[in-house]
Amino acid sequence: MSRAPDTWILTADCPSKLGTVDVVTRFLHEQQCYVTEHHSFDDRLSGRFFIRVEFRQPEAFDETAFRAGLAERSEGFGMAFELTAPNHRPKVVIMVSKADHCLNDLLYRQRIGQLAMDVVAVISNHPDLEPLAQWHKIPYHHFPLDPKDKPAQESKVLQVIEDTGAELVILARYMQVLSPELCRRLDGWAINIHHSLLPGFKGAKPYHQAYNKGVKMVGATAHYINNDLDEGPIIAQGVETVDHSHYPEDLIAKGRDIECLTLARAVGYHIEKRVFLNANRTVVL
After folding, report:
1. Which of 118, 4, 134, 119 shows the shortest CA–CA distance to 56?
2. 230: pLDDT confidence band, cut at 50, 70 and 90?
3. CA 122/CA 138 separation, integer angstroms
4. Residues contacting 37, CB < 8 A, separation 6+
5. In this structure, what DSSP letter does residue 233 have?
6. What are phi and psi of 27, to 5 degrees?
7. What's the CA gap between 274 and 38, in Å, rounded?
8. Half-sphere exposure of 63 (CA within 13 A, CB side)
9. 48 pLDDT more than 70
10. What is the pTM of this model?
11. Rounded CA gap, 238 and 172, in Å?
């Protein structure tokens, strides 16, 4: 469900406690805010409560007073909240290598307004996709990777992220393993996409390996990065069945499509503030 352009987003989480829904919805009612969408979840295993509300503000709306009032009202619940203004478009940096399908799909969805974000830079360890970024009038930064001096390349990457004020980093088939240091810096606000093949096939030509095993299912996983390779908190997954008639090139083509859809879905969830980190898992409202 896409966000309405004139609504605020209120997200909050806290320990599970009686009255958590009421403290939010009652405050919104008292402030004459009209709720257009509401989702909440109480995790009985972790003892955490999560809520996301979209609302329209009254004509006289004081954001500073609203924040102060809600902070005071929710203090007894240990509630942390975030308020996102209408039409907020997060700044995004996309990292790529040579494959262009995910980058092209994200830029297209941004251009038609499906993803309300502003891509402020594309970073790559190869020069191949610079024409695509230039066509969209987006700065392209080519930082070749010297295996003997990876920190030097990553320091340039981090400098671009900081200089652009990026709020989200997307690894759109960036085929390099990030260092533990960079993973820690980007923890919780960098999304990666990779294929999901069962059984798991690592190394070169995974789809050829999958073909040789006669797989009946291919898919993709979008997740936040952390220091465990391809094992960060999962945001979205996609899957499709295949059969004996799918040759390796067919599996690759189907995998590209699923990667594009799954990554776009995960990015949409993130920029619409629908994703909450819950230890090593996610809650998507």
Report:
1. 4
2. low
3. 7
4. 1, 7, 52, 53, 54
5. P
6. -65, -40
7. 11
8. 9
9. yes
10. 0.93
11. 16
CA-based max dimension of the chain: 65
Instruction: Calculate what percentage of the chain has a pLDDT beyond 70.
Output: 98
Q: Are 185 and 206 in contact (CB under 8 A)?
A: no
Residue 54 CB-half CA count within 13 A: 15
> Cα(63)–Cα(10) distance, rounded to whole angstroms?
12
* pLDDT, tens only, 90-147: 999 999 999 999 999 999 999 999 999 999 999 999 999 999 999 999 999 999 988 8
Active site residues: 230
User: 9 with 272: CB under 8 angstroms?
Assistant: yes
* Beta-bridge partner residues of 95: 123, 171
Q: What is the rounded distance in angstroms from the CA atom of residue 220 to the CA atom of residue 252?
A: 12
Scanning the chain, the segments in alpha helix (DSSP H) are 20-30, 63-74, 101-111, 130-135, 150-164, 180-186, 206-213, 248-271
- What is the Cα–Cα distance from 148 to 161, expressed in whole angstroms? 23
Let me know how long the chain is. 285
| C-alpha torsion sign, points 42, 44, 19, 68 | negative
Q: What is the pLDDT of residues 137-177, one digit of tens each?
A: 999 999 998 888 889 999 999 999 999 999 999 999 999 88
Taken in order 146, 148, 151, 155, the sign of the CA dihedral is negative
Taking the C-alpha atoms of residue 90 and residue 101, their distance in angstroms, rounded to an integer, is 22
Specify the amino acid at residue 281. Answer: R
Query: Token pair for residue 169?
Result: 């980093």
Question: Which one has a higher pLDDT value, 4 or 2?
Answer: 4
Distance separating alpha carbons of residues 201 and 247, to the nearest angstrom: 16
- The residues, any chain, with a CB within 8 Å of residue 29's CB and separated by 6 or more, are none
pLDDT at 5 over 90: no
Structure letter (DSSP) for residue 172: S
pLDDT at position 214 over 60 = yes
